[in-house]
Amino acid sequence: MRLPDPAATEAFGASLAARVRPGDVITLQGDLGMGKTSVARGLLAALGLAGEAPSPSFAIVQPYEPPEVNLPVLHVDLYRIEDAEELEELGLAEALTDTLLLVEWPERAPGYWPQALALTLQPGPDGGRILTADVPASWKPRWPI
């Protein structure tokens, strides 16, 4: 999918909001500046978040709870994670039953979320972004966007 500008990237994230469920995991992979946080911001805004969602780069996990958003969300940035064992300390496994996980830099924990909707953002030839998706079985009825 071609995303020509940041507005289109956020709009794609917003389009995900009608399809997400508690227990879903969406991973966002791509180099710095590719739009991972923009996708997350669009999704969070469509779920009801007023104002701009901060990047969780330093906090690592940014939680959102109703009534701030329509369903519980953990926006996770694994950029500073050096060892996948550190994930246990974050308590993400416990959140998988009733929370949407948005995970940036999932390659820091390979194989940790095998059932995730895995989105990858790469530079497009015209300065935009190319988004590709690895769609697991649980997302097949909800895809394409």
TrEMBL record:
Signal peptide: none annotated. GO terms for cellular component: cytoplasm. It comes from the Bacteria. The keyword Nucleotide-binding applies. GO terms for biological process: tRNA threonylcarbamoyladenosine modification. Its main location: cytoplasm. GO terms for molecular function: ATP binding; metal ion binding. Pfam families: TsaE (PF02367). Gene3D superfamilies: P-loop containing nucleotide triphosphate hydrolases (3.40.50.300). Keywords: ATP-binding, Cytoplasm, Magnesium, Metal-binding, Nucleotide-binding, tRNA processing. It is found in: Cytoplasm. Belongs to the TsaE family. PANTHER family: TRNA THREONYLCARBAMOYLADENOSINE BIOSYNTHESIS PROTEIN TSAE. This is tRNA threonylcarbamoyladenosine biosynthesis protein TsaE. The lineage of its organism: Bacteria, Pseudomonadati, Pseudomonadota, Alphaproteobacteria, Sphingomonadales.
